[in-house]
Amino acid sequence: MIQKSILVPDFVADEFQQPLRHPNPALDAVDRSVERVYRLIDAALEGLEHRDWDVGQRSFYSRNDIEPYCFSRIGDKFYIWVEERGHKSPISVFKSRYMAADYFVWLVSQGQRKINWDLFMDSEP
Asked: How many domains does the chain divide into?
């Protein structure tokens, strides 16, 4: 991944440079928590008609993902972009997987769906 700098306030840069955390000290706790978020997005968008989406770089995706909205963890951040005619257009960058997931579901569903955060609790480390 090529990294480039953008200008942001110091408090934003400081927060974005922090590693992802989880209260569980297990080495794979963050990865398992992110995987649960991917599953929750998939469940929230299940059966949504005529919307193209891709989560976790093809971990979960819609049946018609021709020009999808995309959500993925890259490093310690969560990115949302749209692919149009092979070109990626960024929409947003989040530090919080939870806020990113809520926004992604709202965006893809045009406000019609929400994540049920009570699902898959057994997979949260």
From this structure: 1
Q: What are the residue ranges of helices labelled H in 17-125?
A: 29-45, 97-109
Calpha distance 96→103 (Å, rounded): 11
What element of type H or E holds 74?
strand 69-74
How many Å from the N-terminal Cα to the C-terminal Cα in the chain?
Answer: 28
* Span 84-99, pLDDT tens digits: 888 999 999 999 999 9
Q: Is residue 84 part of a domain?
A: yes
Taking only the tens place, the pLDDT of each residue in 7-49 is: 989 999 899 889 998 989 888 999 999 999 999 999 999 988 8
Strands 53-55 and 69-74: parallel
* pTM of structure: 0.90
